[in-house]
TrEMBL record:
Converts the preformed base xanthine, a product of nucleic acid breakdown, to xanthosine 5'-monophosphate (XMP), so it can be reused for RNA or DNA synthesis. Xanthine binds at L20, N27, K156. 5-phospho-alpha-D-ribose 1-diphosphate binds at A128, N129, G130, Q131, A132. Belongs to the purine/pyrimidine phosphoribosyltransferase family. Xpt subfamily. The gene is xpt. This is Xanthine phosphoribosyltransferase.
Length: 194
């Protein structure tokens, strides 16, 4: 997705060989126009999948997921990372290990909003090692819902998450795939013509 790649190049900051900072449009400040285009792109890539709901994770997954939900005409559910005063009953919970932070955290979704027969599109801002996506798939399985695919805004292709998820036979669509952040340069993976 050219608009996204342009944004990454002009407003992203390479912090190290493995970390890209995109606070200017995705992780802190949000660019609504870009987000709307991202939503349309996800919708186009999953339009034939009969998606019933979108499942994402707070906080940075919410903006792109919401725009995709608007385009596809389906509700958006975000898994919670913190305990909530009101979200206490009927919880589906998964453990998510972060290699980056070396911590395990719990993510939760109310069973009220994901049911057997749901056909979910999982969306997230970044795909690194894939642990967040696997946690959301775990929650979908607990609810006996299907996962029709995963939509990612920025995939770090040099980390193993994308390969691991695709090896499971899951359709993973990433709008920008980064091959390398070495030498302070963002190198994108060449995309096959679509
Ligand atoms: P994984 O789920 O793919 O295994 O990822 P990992 O544990 O490595 O990621 C932990 C957090 O760091 C996630 O955000 C993820 O989106 C983010 N992240 C990973 N790599 C990068 C990167 O290169 N750049 C940026 N900007 N973020 C990265 P989170 O803690 O869930 O935060 P948020 O959703 O509240 O923003
Ligand atoms: Na993030
Ligand atoms: Na995230």
């Amino acid at each position: 997705m050219d608009l996204l790649k342009e944004k990454i190049v002009t407003e992203g900051k390479v912090l190290s060989d493995s970390v890209l900072k995109v606070d200017a449009f995705l992780n802190h400040q949000v660019d609504p126009v870009l987000m709307q285009e991202i939503g349309k792109e996800f919708a186009n890539r999953f339009r034939d999948k009969k998606i019933t709901k979108i499942l994402t994770l707070e906080s940075s997954g919410i903006a792109p997921a919401t725009m995709a939900g608007l385009e596809l005409g389906v509700p958006v559910i975000f898994a919670r990372k913190r305990q909530s005063l009101t979200l206490t009953d009927n919880l589906l919970t998964a453990e998510v290990y972060s290699f980056t932070k070396q911590t395990t955290s719990k993510v939760s979704v109310s069973h009220d909003f994901i049911k057997e027969g749901d056909n979910l599109l999982v969306i997230d801002d970044f795909l690194a090692n894939g642990q967040a996506a696997l946690g959301l798939i775990d929650i979908a399985e607990q609810a006996k819902a299907d996962v029709a695919g995963i939509g990612i805004v920025i995939e770090k292709g040099f980390q193993e998450g994308g390969q691991a998820l695709r090896d499971k036979g899951i359709k993973v669509e990433s709008l920008a795939i980064i091959d390398s952040l070495e030498n302070n340069q963002v190198a994108f993976k060449e995309e096959a013509l679509r």
